[in-house]
Known about the structure:
Helix content: 40-55%
Strand order of the largest sheet: 2-8-7-6-5-3-4
Largest sheet: 7 strands, mixed
Bound molecules: pyridoxal-5'-phosphate
Low-confidence stretches: none
Amino acid sequence: MNKNTPINYEIVTEKRKASKLPSIGTASIRELVRLVNEIEQASGEKFIRMEMGVPGLLPPEVGTNAEIEALKKGVASKYPMIEGLAPLKTEISRFVKLFLDIEVDEKVCIPTVGSMQGCFAVFLVANRTDTKKKGTLFIDPGFPVQKQQCDVIGQKYKTFDVYNYRGNKLKDKLESYLKGGEISTILYSNPNNPSWICFTDKELKIIAELADKYGVIIVEDLAYFGMDFRKNYSEPGKAPFQPTVAKYTDNYILLISSSKSFSYAGQRIGMMVVSPTLFDKEYPDLQRYYKTPGFGYSMVYGALYSLSSGVSHSAQYALAAMLKATNDGTYNFINDVKIYGERAKTMKRLFIENGFKIVYDKDEDEDIADGFYFTFSYPKMESNELLEKLLYYGISAISLEITGSEKTEGVRACVSQTHENQFADLEKRLKQFNTDFPVA
Ligand SMILES: Cc1ncc(COP(=O)(O)O)c(C=O)c1O
């Protein structure tokens, strides 16, 4: 390998060795963050950091101000209600109506400590509704921590890479898992982390029909709500609406994060919306773990009570204020985060111009959207080798290997931390990479 690389060859080699990571491809995101921090510090060079999915924007003032005001009023000394603050529940229910076109009453709208906690609570309840069922089917690629959540509570799960099963092909593939009768929940994110694919309405209908046929609960993770920028989902109460499986089935739970859409990751607050039918449903098998067979009751007073006894009081005021402004049309959250799509467009172009390929590139026959993440590969390189080499060129990303993808050559890039003033550097580095590793 050419040793005249953008980042000092010896420093990268030495730090890489010292990290003792057996492979970059299987390293966790946080392990990579540490390694890149060390190389940056030792070399004095800034990386194009694409490994971690953190918001790169400031939180909306309306949220911060509401939180400060609530703290000044003294809410910190009081326990919040586990099911959530009344004004927040009202705004979540309005948000769901105005941006998903789904009617739900306030009772089923519950704040959680990030979507992460919402997801954990779902596993604790939804995967225990039936003694004959065993756990979750993940439509991958996906967010690795959700599988870790299943692991830590000893729940089994199945997964498959959806790449070859888009459109009508999804039906048979899903059914091959559901036929056995052991799947209690199906989980996917939409838009998808890591691939940024977005399910079409046809695919969501297929998922919904099978949920009803097999009595499976769909967990729709909307961590990137509204962020498919090909469509304008930003006008309250006006089509188009963020697509959702909730349009087609009553067997759903929605997890809506505030972390990316509202740049509020640090305060750890998200929303869980349980289908009203499911909320009131009784599952006698739940009584193995909870006092009552009621699904909603077990969720709130069983799982969420046990996990954290509610969500930080001040953060609930912040989210209520951000949602109210959004619902009233005085704050446009999508305008604030659209910048991610613009960055992705330029960054994808720079990669493609220099011999790289986009791995997950289509939603059925439509080109994939430009958004928070994209996936790429380089001819004749497996992801591990590619990531190792990119370190010398000051570019960091993660392998799709840890996401349940079968695309062993694929890498995930997150655009949030790359600012426009780094594009020239990115281009220069990619050009040199392409020169040093010519695509024959
Ligand atoms: C698909 C997906 N689900 C859930 C989360 C976690 O969201 P939160 O920060 O609300 O816990 C993330 C965060 O990166 C994500 O990508």
